[in-house]
Amino acid sequence: MLLVHCPYCDETLPELEFTYGGEAHIARPENPADKTDDEWRDFLFIRTNVKGPHFERWRHAHGCGRFFNAVRDTVSDRFLTTYKADAPRPDLAVLLADASMKEPSK
Amino acid sequence: MTHFSALSLLKNALTGQKNWQAQWPDSQPKSEYDVVIVGAGGHGLGAAHYLAKEHGITNVAVIDKGWLGGGNTGRNTTIIRSNYLYDESAKLYDHAVDLWEGLSQDLNYNVMFSRRGVLMLAHNVHDVQSFQRHIHSNRLNGVDNRWLTPHEAKEFCPPLNISPNARYPVMGGALQMRAGTARHDAVAWGYARSASQRGVDIIQNCPVTAIRRGTDGSVEGVETAKGFIRAKKVAVSAAGHTSVVMDSAGVRMPLESYPLQALVSEPIKPIFPCVVMSNTVHAYISQSDKGELVIGSGTDQYTSYSQRGGLPLIEHTVAAICEIFPIFNRMRMLRKWGGIVDVTPDRSPILGTTPVPGLYVNCGWGTGGFKATPGAAHTLAWTIAKGTPHDINAPFTLDRFRTGRLIDEAAAAAVAH
Predict the structure, then answer these.
(1) CATH of domain A3-29+40-102
(2) Does B169 fall in a domain?
(3) A26–B contact, CB cutoff 8 A
(4) Is B264 domain-assigned?
(5) Which of B132, B230, B325, B344 lies 20 to 30 Å (CA to CA) from residue A34?
(6) pTM here?
(7) CA of B255 to nearest chain A CA: how many angstroms apart?
(8) Contact indicator for B238, B66 with CB cutoff of 8 Å
(9) Count of domains for chain B
(10) Contact across the interface for B256 and A46, Cβ inside 8 Å
(11) Do residue B380 and residue B276 come from a single domain?
């Protein structure tokens, strides 16, 4: 079971308290009527589905109830960080450097 | 290559079983093929078999990053059924069941297809209405499926608990008698043997790192751990890793990869005569010929390539199984594992051509690809050979996510996904 850190409650809790909210930083189009079919497809259906560090949303459903974002490695399932929903997208290079410092063996 | 028959069994029995030959060679790649298939699971090997057998295309390589049949083909719960709601799905999955019925003869390899019946349990009013809608829809499509009352269900599957006080009371069930199970490894092995016998190279432990495209945009071949392999046509049949492979060709896919888990119990004497699925509590169970109870769980909530999955799902599934079948309360579970399944937004597969000339794809089977193995492979081979969609796979295009012509089996509920 994953242990997830809620940036609002500032606690690390079992996955069962949380629901997964899909890929993060997908912005709804500002002028939907202007979008082509291709753009709608990309917005609605296309996902990076990355093998490696993945930006994703989680919701602390059985806690504070709030959405937040996370970066998780989809190969190891290890969280690199979690951050509040309105925080900017973190720099992946910095996160990876931090993670490798914590784990010198890897 | 040995032709399996009663006579060959007898002959080898008399010589102490010492003269069996390897059934396929472990091939090394040539520099060029007519067709390269990425992924040596049932679907990829099956496509190679039908390409060789039905279309006379034998200069084919099937390439896998691991060993053949080592991905989801070797990890699923082996259930075969075709009771899907929509016309397009019913045609595709029933085509597969038609092929399953003759597969052992076609391959001269016993895939142990067993038509033991699949019973899908209804636990609430919504289930009852939804399953009956499925049954009506199936009958209009000529797909076998019928309604059982709780007592008829109990008669068909005696270990079932139909007490009205059960946590998940059984209000009836939909039974497809034509459905059942097959030996999953034998499917990969049978297709591999038949394809290789007809001249197909099966290249294992050779990850495909990228698909290379020429200046005109069409496919030139694949980059692999064993060097570049030129190919006129490339078909990607890589399940959970399809997004990664397709991305290297510049095609972004409407897929997300999730872990799906299954587990088996210690082996016991035959007690469970059929397959029972319960979509509401998300558990399904059957008994293998070795005697193990084979139990399937749901997908984890998060995307992952870890081939593990979390224990809460297993706990939930086993709790549901014990409630529906109190007889299994004291069974011990031996092993659990995960496979990575590629899920589309409408829970229907993507099968056929892509925007890239010479590039074909067979993916998006989500949690239910094994049952479709022969049907998907057969129609994909057609599409690769002719360059156009087969009547049956034509609706399952990649383009439907742009046009909006989705085949929305997910919203149709009552289909175990």
Answers:
(1) 3.30.2270.10
(2) yes
(3) no
(4) yes
(5) B344
(6) 0.95
(7) 7
(8) no
(9) 2
(10) no
(11) no
What is this model's ipTM? 0.94
B398 and B363 part of one domain: yes
Blockwise average pLDDT, block size 10, chain B, 417 residues: 89 93 93 98 98 98 97 96 95 97 97 97 94 96 97 96 92 97 97 97 97 96 97 97 97 97 96 93 90 94 93 92 92 95 95 97 95 98 97 97 92 46
Average pLDDT over residues A85-98: 93
In this complex, the residue of B243, B306, B401 whose CB is nearest that of residue A45 is B401
Could you tell me which chain A residue has the CA closest to the CA of B315? Answer: A1
Cα dist from B96 to B261, B353, B392, whole Å:
24, 20, 11
Q: Which residues of B touch A37 (CB under 8 A)?
A: 402-404
- Based on its alpha-carbon atoms, the radius of gyration of chain A, rounded to whole angstroms, reads 15
Task: Write the residue in A16, A48, A74 that is nearest to B305 by C-beta.
Answer: A74
Lookup: tokens for B3: 């032709």
Confirm whether B107 is domain-assigned.
Answer: no
How far apart, in whole angstroms, are the C-alpha atoms of residue B288 and residue B324? 19
Domain containing residue B197: CATH number: 3.50.50.60
Q: What is residue B58's three-state secondary structure?
A: coil
* B127: containing domain: 118-177+256-343
Q: Do B244 and A37 touch (CB under 8 A)?
A: no
pLDDT category of residue A84 using cuts at 50, 70 and 90? very high
Establish if B325 belongs to a structural domain.
yes
Output the pLDDT for position B345: 94
* Alpha-carbon span B249 to B246, nearest angstrom: 5
